[in-house]
Amino acid sequence: MKRVLLVMVLVLLGGCATTKPVAENRPFSVTQPPGWKEHRTNALMSVSKEYPALQNVDIARKGLQEEKQFTHTKRRVTSGMLPQELAEVVIDEFQSDQNFPVDAVEENEPAMIGGEPGFRVRLTYSTKTGLKYRAEIYGFVHDNWYYQITYSAPARYYFARDLPAVQQMVKSFTLAKAQ
């Protein structure tokens, strides 16, 4: 009897031990860095190595027809925008967030993401307690969707330490064939 009870407990606990959400029906594929864990959020995908406040990568997409594409800016992404114009909208979104004021836009340049022309922006912002974060944002438009990959981490140590792994993740990004 003890043996049967032990087996039942192990089977039940084994079913609870999964840490990775099912990745069905995503409009893209990407290779997450080894040892990073996926978290359930409103983004299409959110991963971090230790804890989301220490380093986090969010992959999101917004419909070009959505009435409110962003939380803090009224500006919109539209089809036919140049990568530089897309970057300006995203920078405005970050600069309009009063909770995490942007300290500086360090870099803003064109980038290829998943074979699509887009942008890469690097900026710094601070929390209300004074902790400085650095973020690297990639974005592009494909069909009727705006895709954004955002990496953020404390600027002092974690950002530089994990940036190469995140850049490899971005390089592995590809859109699904059936778009």
Q: What distinguishing features does this structure have?
A:
179 residues, disordered N terminus, seven-stranded antiparallel β-sheet, 24% helix, two-stranded antiparallel sheet
Could you characterize what this model shows?
By secondary structure, the chain is α+β, with helices and mostly antiparallel strands. It is built from 3 helices and 9 strands, in the order αββββαββββαβ. It has helices at residues 2-16, 83-95, 158-172, and strands at residues 28-29, 37-38, 45-48, 56-63, 102-113, 116-126, 132-142, 145-154, 174-175. β5 and β6 form a beta hairpin. The longest helix has 15 residues, at 2-16. The radius of gyration is 19 Å and the shape is globular. Mean pLDDT is 86; it is low at 1-23.
Quick structural summary:
The protein contains three helices and nine strands, in the order H-E-E-E-E-H-E-E-E-E-H-E.
